[in-house]
């Protein structure tokens, strides 16, 4: 998982697939892997390469579980994604 320059956006790599997760809008986009350039421990991706329509995700749930936020959503073909996003000591998201 990578965090984008824009706060509230995460780029999740699942095998050869990349998902752009917009935490603020509660949207998920399927990103073409050809538009993502991997550089050691980071990636370069342009928001202009984002598809115009998000995936039809269901069951979007966010929950504060102490020192992290837990995010769950279901992709269109039924796969359940769960992310645990660490929080700063003041309770705000790191990303």
Characteristic terms for this protein:
95 residues; three-stranded antiparallel beta sheet
What's the topology here?
Blueprint: E1 2-3, E2 9-14, E3 17-22, E4 27-31, E5 37-39, E6 42-44, E7 58-64, E8 68-74, E9 80-86
Antiparallel strand pairs: 1-2, 2-3, 3-4, 5-6, 7-8, 8-9
Q: Would you write up a description of this structure?
A:
The chain is an all-beta fold and 95 residues long. It is 0% helix and 48% strand. It has strands spanning 2-3, 9-14, 17-22, 27-31, 37-39, 42-44, 58-64, 68-74, 80-86. It has a four-stranded antiparallel sheet with strand order 1-2-3-4, with no helix packed on it. A three-stranded antiparallel sheet has the order 7-8-9, with no helix packed on it. Strand 8 and strand 9 (80-86) form a beta hairpin. The relative contact order is 0.19.
| Largest sheet entry | 4 strands, antiparallel
What proportion of the residues form beta strands (DSSP E)?
over 45%
Distance between the termini: 11 Å
Structural class: mainly beta
Principal-axes shape call: globular
Q: Helical residue percent?
A: under 10%
């Amino acid at each position: 998982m990578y965090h984008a320059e824009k706060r509230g956006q995460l780029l999740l790599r699942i095998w050869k697939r990349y998902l752009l997760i917009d935490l603020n809008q509660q949207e998920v986009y399927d990103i073409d892997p050809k538009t993502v350039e991997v550089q050691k421990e980071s990636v370069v991706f342009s928001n202009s390469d984002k598809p115009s329509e998000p995936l039809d995700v269901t069951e979007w749930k966010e929950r504060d579980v102490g020192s992290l936020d837990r995010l769950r959503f279901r992709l269109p073909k039924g796969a359940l994604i769960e992310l645990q996003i660490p929080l700063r000591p003041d309770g705000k998201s790191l990303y």
